[in-house]
């Protein structure tokens, strides 16, 4: 297991604690997970960076995103590594930090095609399960598939129109373009988007981030 760096408040949480925060694209899960993790002194883990890193490698080495075997061979030959840090996650590819290159429209457009492959998801799941708890992890199926025995599970959602408005400043694109990309991602990711049966559902459409974080913290035993 890979031991993650902790903050001073780690002793307030049980050693094996895993808190999952899932949801669709632009539901606010990354920002919320970071705030929740900081509030209780735990590392924050972004599963999405691993999928984006895999997609970056597919594009970098001109691999067909429909060729599952070729994608796995590329990841074995050119591995990626997630580095959760208190100040934020970093993603390394062959030892080089590529984090700043992962949130582009090019990666956005292909990441669903890469992550739909079962063996690619298993590759990511294995990387995540190698991390030693406690931590807060966000993604799409962390509570339902990767960590089914997590201490607490949350699922954030919001109307597509609201999510598009949130993403426009990040992508420097027109609202309608971003909205269509989000709707396409929702359709492509539908197999991963079912919330865990025991997850707490939080609709963030009309909520500010402080309210969402407070709602989650009230339900975490620490």
TrEMBL record:
Gene Ontology MF, one: CMP kinase activity
Chain residues that bind ATP: 23-31
A Pfam family recorded for this sequence: Cytidylate_kin
Location in the cell: Cytoplasm
EC number(s) reported in the record: 2.7.4.25
Keyword Cytoplasm in annotation: yes
Limits of the Cytidylate kinase domain: 19-220
Gene Ontology BP annotations: pyrimidine nucleotide metabolic process
Record's keyword terms, sorted: ATP-binding, Cytoplasm, Kinase, Nucleotide-binding, Transferase
Entry keyword annotation includes Aminoacyl-tRNA synthetase: no
InterPro entries for this protein: Cytidylate_kin (IPR003136), Cytidylate_kinase_dom (IPR011994), P-loop_NTPase (IPR027417)
Catalytic reaction(s) noted: dCMP + ATP = dCDP + ADP; CMP + ATP = CDP + ADP
HAMAP family associated with the record: Cytidyl_kinase_type1
Family from the record: Belongs to the cytidylate kinase family. Type 1 subfamily.
Name this polypeptide is given: Cytidylate kinase
Organism of provenance: Allomeiothermus silvanus (strain ATCC 700542 / DSM 9946 / NBRC 106475 / NCIMB 13440 / VI-R2) (Thermus silvanus)
């Amino acid at each position: 297991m890979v031991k993650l760096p902790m903050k001073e408040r780690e002793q307030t949480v049980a050693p094996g604690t895993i808190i999952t925060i899932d949801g669709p694209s632009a539901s606010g899960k990354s920002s919320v997970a970071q705030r929740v993790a900081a509030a209780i002194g735990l590392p924050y883990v972004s599963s999405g960076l691993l999928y984006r890193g895999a997609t970056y490698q597919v594009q970098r080495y001109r691999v067909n995103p429909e060729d599952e075997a070729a994608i796995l061979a590329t990841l074995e030959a050119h591995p990626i590594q997630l580095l959760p840090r208190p100040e934020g996650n970093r993603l390394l590819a062959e030892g080089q930090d590529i984090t700043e290159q992962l949130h582009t429209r090019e990666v956005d457009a292909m990441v669903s095609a890469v992550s739909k492959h079962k063996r690619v998801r298993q590759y990511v799941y294995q990387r995540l399960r190698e991390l030693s708890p406690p931590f807060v992890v966000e993604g799409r199926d962390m509570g339902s598939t990767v960590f089914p025995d997590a201490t607490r599970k949350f699922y954030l959602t919001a109307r597509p129109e609201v999510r598009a408005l949130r993403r426009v400043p990040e992508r420097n694109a027109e609202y309608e373009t971003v909205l269509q990309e989000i709707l396409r991602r929702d359709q492509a990711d539908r197999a991963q988007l079912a919330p865990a049966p025991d997850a707490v559902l939080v609709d963030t459409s009309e909520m500010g981030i402080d309210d969402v974080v407070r709602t989650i913290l009230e339900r975490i035993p620490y």
